[in-house]
Every structure is written in C-alpha cells, then in structure tokens.
Design goal:
Number of strands: 0
Shape: elongated
Strand content: under 5%
Number of helices: 11
Helix content: over 70%
Distance between the termini: 59 Å
Oligomer: single chain
CATH architecture of the largest domain: Orthogonal Bundle
Length: 211
C-alpha cells in the first residue's frame, strides 16, 4: 500500500475513533456526569490510551462533546423542519438544545469558568443562525409574526433549561412554549421594545443556569 494511502487510512480510522468517543461521552455524561473516562473508552470501543491521545484531560472531552452536540444540532435544522410543521420543528429543536445545556450545566463542576465561556461564545453565532432559520420558517408558515430578533427569542426560550428534567418539567415546558407562541404569533415587537438597547445581551445570558 502506498505510504500516502496508508497515512490517509490511518487518519480516517483516527477520525472514526474521535467521533465514537464523542458519541459515547455524550450518552454517558447525560446519564451520569461523574462517569469515568475508562468507562467512556470502553463504550466507544477504544483503549484508554487512545482516548487520552484525543482528549488529554476530562475538560478537553467535556468541551469537545458540547461543541460537537451544538454543531450537530445546528446542522439538524433543515431535517427538523422537513419532518413536520415549522412550529413543531421549533419546539423539537429547542427541547433538544435544552437537554444539551442541562448536560453542560451538570458538568460545570469539572470545567473552568473561562473555558466553558469560550465554548459558549464560540457556538453562539451558529446557534443564533439556526434560530433565525427556525423563525423564518415559522413566519412563512404563519405561526410567528415578522420582526422578532433571534437573539431575543433565544434568550426568551431560556426557561427550557430551567424547568425540571422530568415528565412534569416537560409538561410545564410545553405549556410555557405555548405562551411564547401566543406572544410572538402574528405580531411585531412594539416600538418601545425596538427602541430598547440590546447590547446588554451576551451569549452567557442565553445559557445561564438558574440559581
């Protein structure tokens, strides 16, 4: 086998292992934030040494999982919108985002503040772009009025990662989502709201946990 082809094959195998580790870590962190890296390696089908070559520290892995989850979620918008009504897609997408943010908050003890804030800042623009696509689809459908800022809507939807992560929380979240749609359906923001400064909004606000 030519040397170049061998190197390419090795890179492909490394990329597959990288994704396998991220997928395993996503599932296991969601179930138990304290899960060991050895358990994650076993679930991914790799040795502990391989895991540590890809992610030298636990924090490296946690941040990589968060970025991977957000990237996957942003890329899912078109598929989510194609599977039903725009309003249903909006709800499904935000409920998935809330589950990712809950996992991140549950892992907060293992992260340095600056590191996770960098990750939030890095993923904010892609998330905002995805929210804009969801809003555009809802506007075209008629379930949302025009003129709403995606950053405002992202901040407004922050209640989803504050409700309880159980069946009661799901019911409450759906009820609150209905109230959100009642508020943004078929109307534009008031002139007073448009005139108010928006510079106080930061990426941290969109994902800030309740105290």
């Amino acid at each position: 086998m030519p040397q170049g082809q061998s190197y390419g094959t090795q890179r492909q195998a490394a990329a597959r292992k990288h994704i396998a580790i991220l997928e395993a870590a996503h599932d296991l962190f969601a179930a138990d934030p304290t899960v060991s890296l050895n358990v994650i390696a076993k679930r991914a089908g790799v040795g502990a040494g391989t895991l540590y070559r890809h992610f030298p520290t636990r924090e490296d892995l946690i941040l990589a999982v968060y970025r991977h989850d957000v990237e996957r979620l942003v890329d899912s918008v078109d598929g989510v919108l194609a599977s039903g009504s725009a309003r249903e897609g909006f709800v499904t997408w935000f409920e998935t985002l809330s589950s990712y943010i809950r996992v991140k908050h549950g892992l907060g003890e293992a992260l340095h503040h600056a590191a996770i804030q960098d990750a939030i800042n890095e993923t904010y623009a892609p998330v905002l772009f995805a929210v804009g696509k969801l809003l555009d689809a809802c506007i075209a459908e008629g379930s949302v009025g025009p003129g709403h800022d995606p950053g405002d809507v992202l901040l407004l939807m922050g209640f989803l990662w504050r409700v309880a992560p159980n069946e009661d929380g799901l019911v409450q979240g759906r009820r609150l989502i209905g109230m959100v749609f009642d508020g943004i359906a078929a109307r534009t923001p008031s002139s007073a709201a448009e005139a108010s400064p928006s510079s106080s909004f930061t990426p941290r606000d969109a994902a800030r946990p309740s105290r």
